[in-house]
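Working notes for the structural subgroup meeting. M.R. asked for a predicted model of this chain before we commit to crystallization trials. I am recording the input and output together here so anyone reviewing the notebook later can reproduce the run.

Input as submitted:
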Amino acid sequence: MTIRINRRRFLIGAGVTASAAALSGCSWLTENDSVQRVLAMAERLTMGSQRFLLSDQALAREFTEADLSPVFKSNGTHRPDSEAYAALAENNFADWRLVVDGLVEQPLSLSLADLKKLPSQTQITRHDCVEGWSAIGKWTGVPVSLLMMTAGLKPDARYLVFHCADEYEKTLDGSGQYYESIDLVDAFHPQTILAYGMNGEDLAVPHGAPLRLRVERQLGYKQAKYLMRIEVVDSFARFYRGKGGFWEDRGYEWYAGI
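Returned structure, recorded in token form:
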């Protein structure tokens, strides 16, 4: 347990240091080739060690309702700044659809009502933000594995790319649009869900309404909010800057395991 806690603190602390460096203008840390090679080596070691020492099905710790945090800050964007999202929210997301496509046998287009009719699960877990704070919340949603089995994966499927409604910055190549990705190991983990409920209520806008990813063995920036589309791919190299996520494109590690 001591090793696990110390590793968690190290990862969060390292993320805070990287964020502070970027904010203070030390962008050379994420642009320097030598630094990038060291970070990539460390990430491979982290991923390899976690998956060697722990089963692919090993669970993140779950808590009780008595442990729920009285305040759960919203990480990242608090509300997507687009007319399209505003229109969806105004209509209580009745017109919203989640698209599942890419390397699947049967593409899906599901409304929020469709998702709520599917088998669901509820879990109380801790969210660890790279900014250094943690909170415990109760999440209800649909297992990602269920949607993947329903859609049917093609043989060359390797990753799930989550396309989101929030845009952090305006860019010509679209790289300011938030996105994330996970591999099939994490996609089929029993605690990886698409959450539409938080603490017994519908997911609120600041927390990612109408749907967000919960991949409980990873840091907070992997928990993509405002989901619009899940694209199954063989590689994420063609997306934006090719690192597998908005923050990963800016120097964060892709496998943010804790």
